[in-house]
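hiii so um. not sure if this is the right channel but i have a protein structure encoded as tokens and i wanna go backwards to a sequence. like what aa goes where. can anyone help
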């Protein structure tokens, strides 16, 4: 019998945290959520854990996410995967994560700040050593929107393997979900995990 987790009404990142814990402890999990962002976040964590997923609608706004661990996805496999991540972190001494918390660079004049952030990201896109990830939150999510002055540079970085995480809570706050043109609309769990596992965090 599937373990049922009721994550309706919970703010990000609680649904994905509850899902991860339930998957680790149970072969089958049914998670109840009430928004599409929670569904997408749970689908991502389930994919990372090599699980089979089925999504269906229930009453009202409720969505049921059924998750089943595959034969390759045991607790021991999860533990080995976590060990591998730690080993990779030790091996890679330059796992750099760049944090963009505003749509301009520095404090003072916004026009100058716009010039600086464009120059910074273009320079990063041209460098031979790229960051592992770029995280956009608060007003920084506007940089990932279509029409942004840096969207082309962010796309170039994404195309060569730089993972770009865009805070879903911030996207919702600024009401620009349909405008995001690059990266993954993510959650606080992924953001916190990326920051705590980075070797270097840069905030220009």
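sure thing!! here u go:
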């Amino acid at each position: 019998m599937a373990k049922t987790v009721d994550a309706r009404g919970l703010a990000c990142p609680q649904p994905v945290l509850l899902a991860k814990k339930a998957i680790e402890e149970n072969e089958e999990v049914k998670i109840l959520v009430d928004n599409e962002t929670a569904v997408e976040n749970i689908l991502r964590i389930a994919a990372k854990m090599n699980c089979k997923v089925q999504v269906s609608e229930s009453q009202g706004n409720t969505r049921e996410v059924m998750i089943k661990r595959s034969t390759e996805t045991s607790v021991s496999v999860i533990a080995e995967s976590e060990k591998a991540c730690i080993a990779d972190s030790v091996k890679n001494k330059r796992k750099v994560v760049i944090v963009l918390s505003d749509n301009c660079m520095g404090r003072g004049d916004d026009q100058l700040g716009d010039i600086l952030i464009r120059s910074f990201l273009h320079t990063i896109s041209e460098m031979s050593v790229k960051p592992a990830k770029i995280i956009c939150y608060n007003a920084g999510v506007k940089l990932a929107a279509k029409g942004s002055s840096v969207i082309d540079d962010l796309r170039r970085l994404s195309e060569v393997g730089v993972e770009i995480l865009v805070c879903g809570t911030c996207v919702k706050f600024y009401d620009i979900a349909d405008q995001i043109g690059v990266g993954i609309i993510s959650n606080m769990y992924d953001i916190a995990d990326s920051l705590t596992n980075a070797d270097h965090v840069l905030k220009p």
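oh and Residues 81-93 have pLDDT under 50 and may be disordered.
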